[in-house]
Predict the 3D structure of the following.
Amino acid sequence: MHGRLEGAGSPREFRRDYWGAVLDAPDAVALARFYAELLGWKTTKEEPGWATIAPSDGVAYLGFQTAAGYLPPVWPPAEGRQQMMMHLDFEVTDLDAAVAHALDLGARAAGDQPQDDVRVMLDPAGHPFCLYLSAGADPTA
């Protein structure tokens, strides 16, 4: 990129400064559908082996690609096992409700939960992601 990002400050459909992260999965379309439901985002592309989702505003997206021989990472890390390369963090205002929603969609809670205001979850493909309380949330509510 050279200079200012093209389209900065313009409506999403006119911007050219998109960025995203791509997750490998045994089934890209299925994992994209999980995250679209979890986040309330829209599917922007879906084809065999590839899918993307994005919020209705902003410039970020999540991409998913089918990877032959996919091995899910383990949490917590264990020597000799597939290591986590990255994880996604999602701020929520109601941790219990967010966890219940993720579980209903097919996620599972990780066995190791190192913080009271964060829940480490595993998506259907085994990728860890964290749900955490927003700074303004009342954890006793």
Residues 1-5 have pLDDT under 50 and may be disordered.
